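$ ./design --mode recover --in tokens.txt
reading tokens...
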């Protein structure tokens, strides 16, 4: 199938495109979590030791899930063809290949602190630790998706048509807060974050190149 035909099919079948992506994403995620039990690469660098743990960062960490939900819903229901297709080309390309990379290079962390508090923030961190193993971390999907969402929102007609820069600034703050929270919660190493940032920007360039001659 040619790229033009693929783009038309994705836009024409938005619900199917969305469902296929999330089925692939979640299927691969749970499969790699079940398969990769003994990482061959423990990710760590000196910068990680300088970053303190903060349970309060869980607020921004959970904002990631809200941001994904809102973005998927709006781009599906209200996005232009270009906005919807670009978003899912980026998600398919970056996230799916990252999940496949985890199978090839099993990696993980060994720096999660013991959570002993019973306050709401500690309980939420404990919930994350229980549901998400410290494996399959580099590059960080949290970071990859945060960067893609921020960049695609900045280029969306919702933000571009606004007379103020409030929405743009808030989106940047959300992205930065989410990325920093992954390190403050010891969910990711600085290496994971750097790799995720570079990989997201790489895919932005790839999709820009692939679609530069498309007549949207």
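writing sequence...
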């Amino acid at each position: 199938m040619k790229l033009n035909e693929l783009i038309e099919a994705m836009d024409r079948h938005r619900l199917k495109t969305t469902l296929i992506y999330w089925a692939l994403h979640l299927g691969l995620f749970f499969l790699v979590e079940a398969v990769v039990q003994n990482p061959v690469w423990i990710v760590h660098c000196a910068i990680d030791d300088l970053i303190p743990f903060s349970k309060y960062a869980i607020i921004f960490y959970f904002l990631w899930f809200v941001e994904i939900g809102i973005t998927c819903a709006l781009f599906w229901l209200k996005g232009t063809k270009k906005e919807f297709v670009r978003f899912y080309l980026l998600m398919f390309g970056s996230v799916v290949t990252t999940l496949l990379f985890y199978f090839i290079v099993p990696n993980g962390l060994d720096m999660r602190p013991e959570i002993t508090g019973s306050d709401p923030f500690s309980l939420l961190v404990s919930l994350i630790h229980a549901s998400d193993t410290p494996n399959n971390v580099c590059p960080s999907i949290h970071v990859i998706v945060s960067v893609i969402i921020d960049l695609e929102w900045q280029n969306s007609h919702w933000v571009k048509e606004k007379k103020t820069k409030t929405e743009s600034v808030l989106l940047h703050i959300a992205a930065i807060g989410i990325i920093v929270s992954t390190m403050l919660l010891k969910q990711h190493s600085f290496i994971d974050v750097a790799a995720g940032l570079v990989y997201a920007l790489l895919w932005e360039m790839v999709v820009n190149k692939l679609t530069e001659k498309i007549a949207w």
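exit 0
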